[in-house]
Amino acid sequence: xxxxxxxxxxxxxxYTASWVGWFTGELGWDRRWSQDNxxxxxxxxxxxxxxxxxxxxxxxxxxxxxxxxxxxxQSRPASWLVLGRPVSYYYPQDVGQGDYGxxxxxxxxxxxxIGTPAIWWAALLAVPALLGRWVALRDWRAxxxxxxxxxxxxxxxREDLDGRTMFLFYALPAVPFLCLCLALAAGWAVGxxxxxxxxxxxxxxxxxxxxxxxxxxxxxxxxxxxxQTIPFGEWQDRMWFPSWI
Length: 245
Known about the structure:
Blueprint lengths: L1 H16 L2 H5 L8 H4 L11 H18 L21 E4 L4 E2 L9 E3 L2 E3 L3 H21 L2 H14 L1 H7 L13 H16 L6 H29 L4 E2 H7 L7
Antiparallel strand pairs: 1-4, 2-3, 3-5
Helix pairs in contact: 5-6, 5-8, 6-8
């Protein structure tokens, strides 16, 4: 029971609670659906808000499950881990001097779902390393971490073969497990109590340096993650690849 509560009940409660703004607001999409569609049978026992939320999720699933039309920001699963084609959620045109605090001739404001490349790209090395550790040493922790990453990503390969339109943000559920792979790889690199002092010292310094790179990478890209007004040239500097534009 405690395991079921931790893995089933608690996530459901936390996820439902994350919709508190939708429940309490008046402008949420389909918020009032249940009022126009009274429940029948056992469904009548379910609070209206929860029935509306369930209907909303059913509609979301139906839409995306049958989505095959092309989109400028669509991408394929093979490109997700390398951040091949992020999704731009917001980019107003013609932001000039005086607009949104712009102090130069031309500025940019964007919300680009790119994340932190220093995490994603390092995971490209960590995941195969953990897979090798599981094969060579039968370390269940390495196998479990890799299996969780695979569970989050591999089902989309079949959808890709079916021609479904997909986007980079479909890979978001894999992010915690990618970070877990990085943490496990770092821990094993540092070594256990029997590892030499020199090894532990140098590897720890390397891990600390890597964490500093992650923080710096996030801070550098933050303006294009949070729609901050920056000069157009600084925005271009952050577009490392043509596919990011």
